[in-house]
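@channel sequence for tomorrow's demo:
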Amino acid sequence: MRLVRRGVQQNGSNDGESARPLRGPAMDTKFGRDVDPDRLRGASGKHLDDAMDKYEVFHAKRPLRAVELKHDLPSSWVCVGQAVSTMYRTDKWHDDGDDEDYKHVHDLSDGKEYEFGRGVFMYEPSSQASKSKVEDDSGRHVRANTDAKPEKLPVPKPEALTLLGYCLGMFVRRFDDGEIYELNPRGCYLFCSPSGDMLALYSPKKQPDGSSGFLCVLAGGKLRVIEDGIDG
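structure tokens (generated this afternoon):
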């Protein structure tokens, strides 16, 4: 995963923000193997029902597809920093294909900023964390300096996920140097857990550095996905 240092204001914005290219509507996805929700029984059916219910709460309409993803959520993660903001594109509350861009700043519900080290955290799969690169002061991409140990997520691992939209990027303040970096890979989608306490960045295809699948997740603080959108 590559993170680029930016001149970022406290609210996570920067003058160079731009959406990654996307052909067609944000929710018109082609990845995954289609499954029939009515044919699933037991725990698998319950997990999928919960994910579809979260879709209806968030988007105010029924989902277009239910699919089995090629990649599973990893079980081992490394905490790399504190999430500052998340940007995404979706047609929630609108007709299918009528997309709108959103930017959520991760802070407390009363608008106050989290104390550094006490908010929503970003986690990378432990298999990828040691390969992560950041932009140094000269503009070169170098290995990230992290000695964090692998751990489990602070929230239960979901067995199904809800698609929120196409991800336009994230900002994170890394714990190793305290600097804010931008994560903006191409062709990635933003998911959430049915309980709404976790966001996941998913890359169906390989990135230039060879990574694919779930590139990172956000969890912690007062993060939740509700009818009004992402909160916390």
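heads up for whoever presents: Residues 7-19 have pLDDT under 50 and may be disordered.
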